[in-house]
Design goal:
The chain is built from two helices and ten strands; from the N terminus they run αββαββββββββ. The chain has about 140 residues and is an alpha+beta fold. Strands 1, 2, 3, 4, 7 and 8 form a six-stranded antiparallel sheet that branches. Strands 6-5-9-10 form a four-stranded antiparallel sheet, with no helix packed on it. The longest helix is centred in the first third of the chain and has 17 residues. It starts with a helix and ends in a 5-residue tail after the last strand.
Length: about 140
Amino acid sequence: MTLIQRGLTLLLCLAAFAVQAEQKQRFDHYDVHYSIVNTTFLKPTVAKAYGIVRGDDRFILNISVRENSDDGDVARKADISGSVFNLIHRKPLDFKEVDEGDAIYYIAQFEGDNKETLDFTLSIQPETSRRKYKFQFNKVMYTGK
């Protein structure tokens, strides 16, 4: 794992837990963890390495899929798609996979205004499953402005 990858993992984890509690959705024996982080929490070098545009009105949706089995909790690759809706426009989310071996996560960038409620619709199919899981959630964005 490179220094930049470690930096992104650490920053995403710290920012997710410091700003907003990570959330989890359970499907059969899979846990889908998701959190939203304002991109200003990322160091400029880390953001640049991943092509992430930093800004008060820019956020990252971070998703990881873990399979609970007899061998313990295992990171799984997944096909993930989704969209974000702000009562006027629905925009697709473009997920980028980051594979660090023990940790696999998917990040998608999007924009939001301060105190704006955004609705998210996600479809997730773990590589070890024939089923596609769908869920929705909403979140109020805070830009710090």
